[in-house]
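DATA SHEET
Item: assembly model
Revision: 1
Owner: S.N.
Input lines:
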Amino acid sequence: MPDSPSADDLFVRLLTANHDQLRRYIFTLLPHEQDAQDVMQETCLALARKFTDYDQSRPFLPWACGFAYLKVLQHRDRHPQRAVLLPADVLELVANARHEEEPLLAARLAVLDRCLEKLPADDRDLIRARYVDRVTPDEIAVRLQISRRSTFRQLERVRRLLHACIDRGVAGWAAS
Amino acid sequence: MSDERQAEPDGDRELHELLTAVCDDALSADQAARLASRLREEPAVRRLYVRYLDMHARLLGLPALPAAAPREPGQGAVLPPPARPHRGVRAAFPLAGASMAALGLFLGLALLWRRPADDGVPPTPGTAAVQPESVVVAPPATAGAYVATIASAAPGARLGDRPVVVGGRLLPASFAVTAGSLTLRFDGGAEIFFDTGSRFRITSRRSLEVEEGAFVFQGDATCEPLAITTPRATLVDVGTRYAAVIQSGSEELHVLDGAVRRSTVGPEEFVTAGIGRAYDDRAPGGREIPIDAALVQRGARAEGAMPVVQPPDAADGFGDPAESIHGLGGGWGWSGPWVAQRDRSPFAVAVPGLRPDGSGGILHHGGGSRAAHRLLERPIDLGADAVRYVRYLVRREADLPGDGNLAMLVLRKHGLTVEEELSRQSFIQLAVRRDDTVALKCFGESIRSSAVLPPGATMAVVAKVVSGSEQPDQIFLRVMPAARLEDREPQEWAAVSESVTTDLVFDQISVEVVSRGMVWIDDIAVGPTWSSIALPREESQ
């Protein structure tokens, strides 16, 4: 742990400022919510332990992402049987791709809210249920009285709509 | 359209199916293999994957959807209102004082802070926290600090003349592996595997002397550097996995990953991945030898170190039909039934509880505080050389404004008055508070850690109690999703107490809840190994 109040404060400030990006970084490498939360916890504990080594002249996020990457690898080693875990060589490629995409990702996030506002009401309900209320696809299927497969298709369709909307929004931004 | 643009796989139906399966946790093994193959081979797929998953992660972090245009007349909601409580997001973070709403519910366990035990934790029935502040607190003596944990061991492994207890803690001292093999995890994060015949001396959490034997070091950039001194040199890892064989008159070094800085009285040497080196009197500066890959692969985990399947000493899954907890006598390892706190309505027994088998659990219906107590047949004795684990499951509704939403298990000594309990610091609280705090209170201090505690999720709260007759005692606490309890204890703990020397004995467990919302608690277990409280078990013995 940071051993002085000022180091404590700095750590809290940096983690607070970068927390969401770090979380999303982990989620890209480990796209399972509970596993990603667990790795986030372990990453933050490791960051706290090693914070005295942090060079304040360098940006915090890449330093923290380096820890997160290693923690994802450790998690992968502990759970080799989980389907959602990418092979180590692919993880590295995805991490590199994420690094290259990082500036664009911030712009895409800024567009996402506008795209959510534009969604048809039914699709917003679906997104709210899935993401805000955390209703599982199986529960959604029961509520909508449709098959599980149809539920996945609906979710896929809405995500594609959002994704395409963000693409257009970012392209429009770049053009302007 | 450029070639680059044509390569973008936005219209790729297969890929979108794979991505939606990832997002909805429905990826089959075949799909996972296909996705990995495409990610490996197609840069455009990697770009789309990153963008798509980032969008998904952002959506998961949303506390609410942004406002939208009103529905058209006659247009009804497709989905009925959610049955689950809305995921509350607190407006402010107590430590930083900065707005944390944007961080949603994903704040990791990161921010530990320690305070004297009397730190304003909301009053709870029957606990020391209700005591007046004027009572003199006499904390136990602080002892020498532990520096490492026995992470795993082969069956029959021994350190000196003692059997190895997995989960046990080590103080700086000299050790000899006289049978089997074991892996130590230093508190700085590095792990070292020692084979039979190894003799070593731990000097601090960052330094170690190996006199003889074979060892394998594994660490990465998340770990504190660990300096290992051998008779001929000092080895310092640089994000590394390496092995060394220390014999009388010669040493070998085999580096699999990263690099090792080897320093002697002469110039420093960097030995990098893929290199093996031997040093003896004929070649004190070393000579290259083939890397012993088999040795280096021997583990960060000792061979044959399968989790020992052992039942808990005490467990209660609340499987017996009943209306309330008072008088309930199920499970095993207890002396007598549960006794509800007098002058308060008891916890109800609800079916289903939190166990996957659909059996009952106990339920706090809101409306203030409840407590219930039960005596352990085999007390947790901090004067004995032992490691004990305590675990319970908890699920809580979203925090209500101004409500601490506190749930905890308290280890205590039966028969003490509240004043005695407080003055002797004779209790250990294992608590979750609000949607973001894990709290461990013991030995006169309170350690809290920020955690992810989503409303409606079943979480496992696990404590490890390390005790010693001559060595100090130490308590660890971690909270994790119940479905993610692993077969080995976690590498990181959310809250860790100081090492102190006490002879406290805890023979009673209390369940205590202070919340205006609904709180479920289930499946309380006390056991000698991590697996005894983490692996599924039969309800009857």
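QC remark: Residues 43-60 of chain B form the longest helix (18 residues).
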